[in-house]
Amino acid sequence: ICMNNEILPVGTATLLRQACDKYVATFGREPVAAASAPGRVNLIGEHIDYCEGYVLPAALPFETIIVGGYNNTDSCNVLSVMGNKDSQISFPSTEVAELKPGLPSWSNYVKGTIANFPDPVKGFDAVIVSDVPVGAGLSSSAALEVAVFTFLEALTGYKIDPIQKAKLCQKAEHEFPGVPCGIMDQYIVAMGKKNHALLIDCQSLQATQIPLDLGDHVILVTNSNVKHELTGSEYPQRRAQCQEAADKLGLPSLRGAKIEDLEELKRLNCNKLVIMRAQHVIEEIYRTSEVAESLRRNDLDRVGKLFFQSHYSLSKLMEVSCPELDELVEIMKDVPGVLGARMTGGGFGGCVVTLVKKDQVDNLKRAVVENYKGNPTFLICQPNDGARTHKL
Ligand code: GAF
Per the database record, which ranges form the Galactokinase N-terminal domain (predicted)? Predict the structure, then answer.
């Protein structure tokens, strides 16, 4: 649903009904199990999860929903109605262990998750629907993995601790789509809390709930609607560079590094790019804790300043921004009521998060629509609960 360039969530009840109707029409029976998992937006702590630092994401009211049931055969049939074209995959339940990545690309998230589900799966039919924007850096992939996993829990009755669930879904993403992601997306998608962001310690995997009660301010998410290809090799490269810095310092990860260590890296003749990545990570870990602290104190001015700093660091040191995201932040920084803005997610396209006064949101949108060269869309971040099952 799109009004004035604003994307509104379809709503759980409507998505569930769509999925159930499609299931009945396709498989000729009523579904018996249903699960959902949301998209997410990261407030700060970017390119930090794989360095074992702090991240601060929130789950969104956009969801991926799966309904289905056993079919008394040994065939697994999954129909996706994401996007405007239906697409179905089928494979024998006896060959789950032999599943391999391949086309269509959405099926990798499904197959990877089924292959990593700890309990044997019997033949089933399922339908997937979603209103999580795809390719926007809002974690449609983690939403799909965690939704599939939660659906399998509902179907089989095999329950698992949500941290383990997040880890298995992360493993699925490493093995099938082949993205060496950190734990942030699967964690927040599995464990998000309504009206809260989670300050996740990616080392201990413990999280603190931070109420996102912003008074007369809101977090606006602006989708640049660009996705640069070429990103395939960039993400693993950043991860490797951060690990190289940690290795040079004799540390398991950059979590343990301090600002002074940058001098040590220079002294060790470390590659310049590696030092830039390390500087981003070390400073961003501090910024993330400080944003959580400032939110608790209700010091939104400080939160905004840290958002801008984070963006410049991602753009200049980590080099994961792109002209369109930089342009959006530049436009936004001069709009009244904007306290801070930064790119969010993996980068090279996707979205900007902006902390802005509620009564200036329309003004901000106008400024963006008039000045941004692309086609922006907007959504308001209203934090949602993480994955859950639904009674049918
Ligand atoms: C992507 C990854 F999947 C996350 O693990 C995280 O590293 C993020 O990029 C950057 O913060 O979403």
Answer: 22-68
